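Record 1 of the preview.
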Amino acid sequence: MQDQTQDTLLDMDDLDSLTLDGIEEAPEFMTPPSGRYNLGINKAEVFKRESEDGDTQAIRLIYFTRETIELNSQDEDKVPDGSLFSETFGIPDGLKYFKTRMIKVLGDKVDGIKIKDMLDALPQVFGENGDKMIAATLKKTVSKKDGNEYENVRFQKTEVVDRG
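->
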């Protein structure tokens, strides 16, 4: 059975009269400034990305901010609760960094667990209704390449805590 919303959106006559009343706003992607946060994970996936060297695969974790605890600079604004940012691990080179992250959030016993199972578990454990969250100290960095600025988030400290 198809979703009724999808049927409505595909019908041009209904689309012409559709308003955004009652449609929930999506959270925004934004790079959090350096500071301490309580985080969740709402999506963990393997995806294909295009690069100069051809298509490659990567693992992407999409985090959401549960709460901004403290910012390193008073000149920065707190990010709204629910805002999103992502962390990407290229395959195969980034798998060692992914393993390091998984050890920090899932514990030392990651050997023998399939990556697919880890990715499936992350949103369940750390998602909106999950029973755990990540208390993290983040550092925002800005780098320049080919005349463009890129913002990155580096995890300096992480601790898994029970929500409660």
